[in-house]
Amino acid sequence: MSELLQVQLKNSEELKKIIKQVEVAFSLSDGRTVETLLVYLPIDAGKSCHQELLRIIKENLLYNFVFSCTEVEKKLNLKSDNNSEELFKKAVRKISKKTAHGELGELILFTLLDIYFQAPKILSKVSLKSNSKMPVFGADAVHGQFVDGGFKLYLGESKLYTSFKSAVPKAVESIENAMSKYEEEFDLIDSYIDFPGISKALEEKLLDLLDPFSDKDIAATIHSPCLIGFADPKLIVDAKSENDFKKKYVELAEEHIADFFSKLEAKNVEIDEASLLLLPYSCVDSMVADFIKYVGV
Fold it and tell me: Helices 100-115 and 284-295 meet at what angle, rounded to 10?
């Protein structure tokens, strides 16, 4: 399989300057390698800065996250000077103050999977909500990509918490539940699959690959990327420079990564079936409150 699915976001380089990556590889104490992604927001005066992230959320991230690629492209191709603004306003109507915390995490996860994993969203769950005050059920993100000669279905989970340690048990439980209820995700994929450049032939191929009722080993296709955003103001305020911050971040991440994957294995999930994405920030309440205010939820 030589196909590559097209990503949805066209401004990945701009986004990578806002959600920056620390390029580092990790192994567990027994030498087994694990897939991780360490990202962080710009830091100024001892605090993580999310204003640029909020700006780009309002400009194009929110509606790309909420709606299918087909709907976004259709709307943007209309001859109107206000089509982006109309899409944004429609997207805002799909979320509420009650769900904003969870959906901010899901939006960041969507962005990271698209720009760093090169895996586009293949199912837009938020767009299917009939009540903005209700959360999305099941996996927080459904993405996919052809990788190493096969196809990976990413059933992603996101947690924005005040503490990494308190987030891990919830994250691991969510991963276990999403993997055990794959058939429910497939029903939605079967009805609403959508990604950039989709063709009838490719759609049929993917639905065949992901058919849970075939004799294929579907479990081998599923991968669980997990974003844990955690407040750590000390990590950020103590850093004397960006390089110093990255050094301390890597040292802290080593502990967090070991903790996450040990708890994952305790749930009988193999370490190569999941990825851990880390994002430290100064204060989760401040970030969510500013998100609500800035986008006008």
Answer: 90
Q: Classify residue 59 by its DSSP letter.
A: I
Beta strand residue intervals within 18-134, DSSP E: 20-22, 26-27, 33-40, 43-44, 47-48
What ranges in 193-297 are assigned the alpha helix state H? 200-209, 233-237, 242-266, 284-295
Token pair belonging to 267:
């749930």
Predicted pLDDT at 1: 43
Check if the beta carbon of residue 225 is closer than 8 Å to that of residue 236. Answer: no
Using an 8 Å Cβ cutoff, are 276 and 228 in contact? yes
Which whole number is the average pLDDT over 79-100? 90
Q: Is the distance from CB of 114 to CB of 12 less than 8 angstroms?
A: yes
Instruction: Give tens-digit pLDDT for 188-198.
Output: 999 999 999 99
| Region of residue 223 (phi > 0: left; psi between -120 and 50: alpha; otherwise: beta) | beta
Alpha helices in 93-163 (DSSP H): 100-115
Say what the pLDDT of residue 109 is: 98
Task: Give the integer Cα–Cα distance in Å for 110 and 185.
Answer: 17
pLDDT digits (tens, 9 = 90+) for 133-152: 887 888 999 999 999 888 99
Give the predicted TM-score (pTM) of the model.
Answer: 0.95
Q: What is the mean pLDDT of residues 189-216?
A: 89
Q: Smallest Cα–Cα separation from 99: which of 125, 60, 67, 122?
A: 125
Q: What is the crossing angle of helices 182-192 and 164-180, to 10°?
A: 70
| Positive or negative: CA dihedral 6, 7, 10, 16 | negative
Task: Work out the widest C-alpha separation in the chain, in whole angstroms.
Answer: 59
Dihedral sign (CA 273, 32, 118, 115): positive
The tokens for 233 are 């103001």
Cβ-based neighbours of 134, under 8 Å, separated by 6 or more:
99
Copy the structure tokens of residue 261: 């994957």
pLDDT of residue 2: 52
- What does the DSSP 8-state code read for residue 291? H
